[in-house]
Amino acid sequence: MAFIASNFAPIMFVGLICFLILGFPVAFSLGAAGLTFGLLGVWLDIFPTAILSVLPLRLIGIMANETLLAVPFFTLMGLILERSGMAEDLLDSIGQVFGPLRGGLALAVVLVGAMLAATTGVVAASVISMGLISMPIMLRYGYSRSLASGVIAASGTLAQIIPPSLVLIVLADQMGKSVGDMYKGAFIPGFTLMGLYILWVVVLAVFKPKSVPALPPEARTFTEPSGSHGYTSLTVLFVFCVAVAALLGHEMPAIHSWWQGEPVDFVPTDEKIVVAMCGGSFVGWLIAVINRVTRMGLLSRLAERVTFVLIPPLLLIFLVLGTIFLGVATPTEGGAMGAMGALIMAVSRKRLSWKLLRQALDTTTKLASFVMFILVGATIFSMVFQAADGPVWVEHLLTKLPGGHLGFLIFVNVLVFFLAFFLDFFELSFIVVPVLAPIADKMGIDLIWFGVLLAVNMQTSFLHPPFGFALFYLRSVAPEKPYVDAHTGKTMEPVTTMQIYKGAIPFLLLQLSMVAILIAFPALVTGGLDKPVKVDMKAVEQQMLQDLNETDQSSDFNTIVVPGGNAAPATDDGNKAPNPVSGGGLPEAGSGAGDSSFGPVGGEANDPMKAIQDSIGK
Q1: What is the rounded distance in angstroms from the CA atom of residue 557 to the CA atom of residue 495?
Q2: H or E segment at 492?
Q3: 449-472: average pLDDT
Q4: What is the pTM of this model?
Q5: At 134, phi and psi to the nearest 5?
Q6: What is the mean pLDDT of residues 281-301?
Q7: Is the separation of the CB atoms in 181 and 530 below 8 Å?
Q8: How is 55-115 classified by DSSP, letter by letter?
Q9: Residue 54 has pLDDT above 50, yes or no
């Protein structure tokens, strides 16, 4: 028993692993391990019985956590957009834009994956949608099966890191940080990772053009009566919208000055970007609406189609993320606005049905319940683990690693990478992060940067062969048997599991490269954050003492205590003011002039100067 008591924390951690190996669900394994070792610890007198009485308060705190309400809101928004056909329209339109280029379909998949990530935040929805829509088209026109599989699975995982990612909400909650700051920190790394995917496709298009062929002319559906494909009109519209956005960003201080009626010299960069992009997108959409209503023929069919398909989700993204970045709305409020915006978009496109809404609500409820059950189990386990000084044991274990901060970061990322083979990102967030975050904070590591770094690393859990969840999602929709293509009538070969695994490996290496880039260049995360305001407590203390001294002197020389206990303020010329009680400037009868006294009212016992000196130890 003495051995168990002295090594309670590591034995508890091993016990959790045993529960997981036995095949119990993670939520129940966490709860069972926590309760079992909690009762054992009380029996061995390792911690008092009162520790278990804290559990109900912890569980009530989970239910009262408003930040976690953003999870069902963003999930519902993404599911409604995905099931209302947005992914299909985006892939069709953007595929037509980039189709004439080698690798154009793969580029379209990456760009649509980024847009779905910014609107849905759900990996499963993105991978399944793009697998159902893009895979048959890419196979039809001769794309490599491994590349097609890898680019679809990898693009779907962008929902892990591009806001409004669900894992970022959970990480912010577990680390005690602002969700808005976590979103700001992940913004640049998310799109940098998208850029790495695009770069890989371009490299393949240059060195292996046969694996990424261009669309043949007969596959381009948007053609003008003149025979052109409408790219000139699309390019002019794009350049005009970018010019409008740039002008808005440059003139933002002048616009603020006009709106507020007073000079404004500085506008935050994130506000400039959001407002400028909103303005440019809205102008493009307005031109397309005028062109359709008046039939002026300003835009080609391709330009009009791309505008009506692309602009509404972009405006929704700017509405949700913009209000969060600017501090106008909390993440929960932003998620609610996003869900309402998705409903409005589905109604306007006449694609909202009761069946679709019921399916979206059903899936949202299941995911939210899944998250809450894991959080409840993790709370039980972490409460007992902390009572047994488990964080101290982990801290001693990790702070002795060679290499300082770099050694700690390398060890943590290797640990998370291998744990991601077996655990989902929610499970990693609730089990591993609460243990690692306090240690990182004590070592002086910025927790926003640390959280984004872990989020990019956890993203690899979706692409790990053979356990990656994205690979399972793609396997469920990819053809397993030979089939006849509906458009060409040719018999197409199936996509094997090994081809899916082979295609995922290059993108997995790109994700690990992104982890290394973030370690080498932390400014990619911290550069966009608001600078912390440093407060000089010594200066504050001196200012307080100076103010109290001035107040004390003012009380001494500007207040006259007259006989009878009535204070009379001195006049500007230094003479005594008449006593309001006696009605004149002379003392009352029966009292002498020597009875008058000067000094602060209340005496030394209530002296605020003495109180503050006592409080600061002087």
Answers
A1: 93
A2: strand 491-492
A3: 87
A4: 0.76
A5: -85, -35
A6: 87
A7: yes
A8: HHHHHHHHHT-SGGGHHHHHHHHHHHHHHTTHHHHHHHHHHHHHTTSTTHHHHHHHHHHHH
A9: yes
